[in-house]
Amino acid sequence: MIPAMPATARTARQASGTALRFGRVAVMGALAALILFAGVWGSWGTAQHVMLAKGRESGTVRVTRCAGDSCTGPFTPVSAGGRARGSVELDSSVAVRAGSTYDVVLKPGTGEAVRSGPAGILLAWLPLGGALLLASVVVAGGMRLTRPAWVLGLAGAGLLTAAFVAVQ
Questions:
Q1: From the CB of residue 23, how many other CB atoms can be counted at a distance below 10 Å?
Q2: How far apart are CA 164 and CA 66, in angstroms?
Q3: Residue 60, strand partner residues
Q4: Looking at the whole model, is its pTM more than 0.70?
C-alpha cells in the first residue's frame, strides 16, 4: 500500500500548479495584447489620414504608372483649398491598377496619397485584421479561452474579407 501524501505537501503541490497556470495565462495574455497593439499601431499610420480626413486635401488620382511598390498619377482636388498636382504617389497593392481612378486623401506635407472611402478605411485596418487572427490562436492555445478566441478570429476574418470585397 502506498502511503498517503501529507496535507502540507498536497497543498504545496496545488499552489505550485495554480501559480504555473496563472503565469501561463498572464504571459499569453500579455503576448496577445502586444500582438493587438502592434496591429493597431501598424494600421493607425494610414488609418488616421483616411478616418480623420477633415482639413486634409482630398480628391482623385488617375493611376498612370506602377513600378515596384508604388503607383503614380495626376491628382485632381475635390476639397476646398486643394491644388492640382502633376504626380502623387499611391502605395501599390492588389487594389491599385494602372488606368483606374481612385478617391484619395493626401498625407499632409507630402506627395503621398492614401485611398479614402470605405475601401480605404478597410485597407488601412488590414494589419489589425491579421493581428486579430494571430491573437486568436494565442488566446485559444495559450490561455485556453475558446470563446474569446473565436470572437477575435471571426472579427479578424470578417475584417479581411470585407477589405477584399470592398476593393474588388
A1: 10
A2: 21
A3: 76, 103
A4: yes
